[in-house]
Amino acid sequence: MNETLFDGEEAFKHLKMLAEEIGARPSGSEAERKAAKYIQKYFEKLGLDVQIQEFEVTAGKVKSKLLEVLKPNLGEIPCEAMPLTGGTGVEGVEGEIVYVESTDEEYLDSKIAGKIILTPRFTRKSMNILMKYKPLAIICIENYPKIYPKHLWGMPEHREKYGSIPILRITFEDGLKLLDSKVEKLRVIVETEEEKAKSQNVIGELKGTSRDDEIVIIGGHYDTVPNVSGAGDNAGGTSIVMELAKVFVEKGSRRTMRFIAWGAEEMGLRGSIFYAKKLKEKAEEFKKSGGDGKSELERVKLALNLDVHGAMIGSNSAAILGPPELTAAVKLLSKELGILYNVREGVYSSDGTSLSSIGIPSVSFSRSSGSNIFMHSIEDSMRWLRPQALQIQGEFIEIFLTRYVAEAAAFPFERKIPDKLRKEIENYFKNRLMLKPP
Ligand SMILES: [Zn+2]
């Protein structure tokens, strides 16, 4: 009854193509487009109805970066810089350094004003608190030893709201070195370049055979942060989505399945937010024009999102934003199949949350692993990943979709998100992503 077609080895070929052949796929880049083309061609080969949904992003580049210790004279410290938070210009800045262990507002005072801030506690929220003191630059120390500095975009909206600031990242070891040598004065140069560019969602639809008006989305983002091959995050999830598309073309489905590779997730869920906005706008127009029956948005019953996958040594997780019976279904299936999932109700910081913010219940499947500490760094590579890990998740999701979407007589999950979870989604957009929900 639970016969599966999912082939982890086949999925692994897609993973390899995206992470190794194409490599880093930062949004708005030629490489992101190349990856989109690869997924598009595959969906077309399967016979899906394929659409490319383009949207605008602010892309950026770090043209040059330098972190130099002037007093004592220690020379250069390797660093990465965020392309979209602001730069120093070619001339750079020189200033005194101050170590900020806690970025809680009540522990800060004007002693840190106008300096270069060194901190191990950096979040979007802390950036906005630190900005009140008009620092020259912020240097974040990685939370763990033995990790290369992470590559992150930064958000132009925050810069517009809170001001421009160069933000650099250094290793845990270099953070310690700076503190040990009682550094007083630093020079920072970050030259950035910015442009409007296009990113895209790749959408492949398999029309349902008897309940085609009911739609289920199965998605994962294919973009990366700059310079990182993003094997686990998220060539892994994308490759499972591609293989699942193949599986259900073969098996068929009573309900419509929409397979989506999201663009620009790493810039702040841009692809899924754009998609959700469009669905919402269409629903409003539909209502205004007095359309009969349900809008497309109301017909999307569920979204599965796959983000961070493929680690051999690890465990399975599912985060749910939806009715209690959806959580129960994942838990029961986990027990029945003997595939352990850590199931919780709450936000997972990825594209499923954009869809849930417009009322679509979602399940975010992911693979937890010690190697996930390398996420967004150059060590998020194929090294930690194996086909077997894709197989585990792929089979589980195939069985879930077969029972509850492809074959179920009536759709088993109410299209409802409990108030407590809705609040959590609101807070996530407001406090963590610091963006307006769709
Ligand atoms: Zn991701």
Q: Give the low-confidence spans.
A: none
Number of strands: 14
Characterize the largest beta sheet: strand count, sense, and whether it forms a barrel: 14 strands, mixed
C-alpha geometry: elongated
CATH superfamily of the largest domain: Zn peptidases
- Tell me the CATH architecture of the largest domain: 3-Layer(aba) Sandwich
Distance between the termini: 40 Å
Which strand-content bin applies to the residues?
A: 25-35%
Q: What name does CATH use for the topology of the largest domain?
A: Aminopeptidase
CATH domain class name of the largest domain:
Alpha Beta
Order of helical and strand elements? HHEEEEEHEHEHEEHEHHEEHEHEHH
Structural class: alpha/beta
> What ligands does this structure carry?
zinc ion
Helix proportion of residues, in percent? Answer: 25-40%
